[in-house]
Amino acid sequence: MRPMFVFLSAKIAAGINDSTYRAASLIELLHTATLVHDDVVDNAMIRRNFFSINALWKNKIAVLVGDYFLSKGLLLSLENDDYQILQITSKAVKEMSEGEILQMEKARKLDIKEEIYFDIIRAKTASLLSAACSAGAYSATLDKEVAENFRLFGEKVGIAFQIKDDLFDYGEDNIGKPTGIDIKEKKMTLPLIYTLQNVDKSIRKEIIYIVKNQNTDRRKVNDVINHVKQSGGIEYATKKMRQYQEEAIQLLHTYPDTPERNAMEELVNYVIDRKY
Fold it and tell me: Alpha-carbon distance 186 to 164, whole Å?
């Protein structure tokens, strides 16, 4: 998905060239490296319906494989003097790490506010998608202002994408992700944050206790999910997601109406309206 954002951003901005292909490769190598390392951190045994690298060859090999993918991407840029694109993606790596650390810190205290939630997902999820759009646009134009416009567009899409992912945790359809998994991992997502801010004190205390101490009890987790649904947390998060989606489309519409722009709009709608 992310290389598609690279190519479409380049095409809308000016056109695809050799630098664009390298930018797309760098983004995908970087993304793959983060997934491999995430599986180690989360002790995840499955990735895309197959055994993760750490499940097959243990953590040491998995960390080294992730490092290898990252180094291949860095060398690809350095060997071709794509320094600005490397700077764009390196900043994304830094922000992704900061977002993960901030999320871990807040998971311990469960004191996260809405603005902190957006800080986390802006760094953790949206930064790589915004880097893909920015790198694609810069590869085509060598214009930092144009690259910044596409970075902002990608950031808004990335935020909407993450809210959609958070909403899956409260769904009941077969979406490939077990419901309640974020609660079990003590992740404070937007529907839950809204709920905690808008229920009475006794229910808030009950929810926090369950998330902290009973997050492996399926019945208790379902109680939290029901509180979120009854409080309007799903509707609120959906409204926020649509707001960021619309803002992204508005930025996109500042560029001429072309087949590439239409394709980008379809891609944005797909990643936000997806069923899994």
Answer: 18
Instruction: Check pLDDT > 50 for residue 134.
Output: yes
Summarize the confidence of residues 154-170 as an average pLDDT: 92
Q: Which residue is it, tokens 């995430």?
A: 38
Beta-carbon count within 10 A of 36 CB: 23
As to burial, measured by CB atoms within 10 angstroms (0-12 exposed, 13-18 middle, 19+ buried), residue 176 is exposed
What is the helix (H) or strand (E) element at residue 225, kind and residue range?
A: helix 218-231
Reduced to 3 states, what is the DSSP secondary structure of residue 47?
Answer: strand
Question: For the structural domain made of 2-273, what CATH number should be given?
Answer: 1.10.600.10
Query: Residue 149 is which amino acid?
Result: N
Residue 129 has pLDDT above 60, yes or no: yes
Inter-CA distances, 185 with 33, 79, 178, Å: 22, 41, 12
Q: How many other C-beta atoms lie within 10 A of the C-beta of residue 21?
A: 16
Any bridge partners for residue 206, and if so which?
Answer: none
Whole-number percent of the chain with pLDDT over 70: 95
pLDDT in tens, 3-27: 999 999 999 999 999 999 999 999 9
Radius of gyration over alpha carbons of the chain, in Å?
20
Total-model pTM? 0.89
Tens digits of per-residue pLDDT, 248-261? 999 999 999 999 99
Q: For residues 9 and 132, is the Cβ–Cβ distance under 8 A?
A: yes
Task: With CA atoms as reference, report the closest residue to 16 among 198, 140, 168.
Answer: 140
Contacts of 226 (CB under 8 A, 6+ apart): none
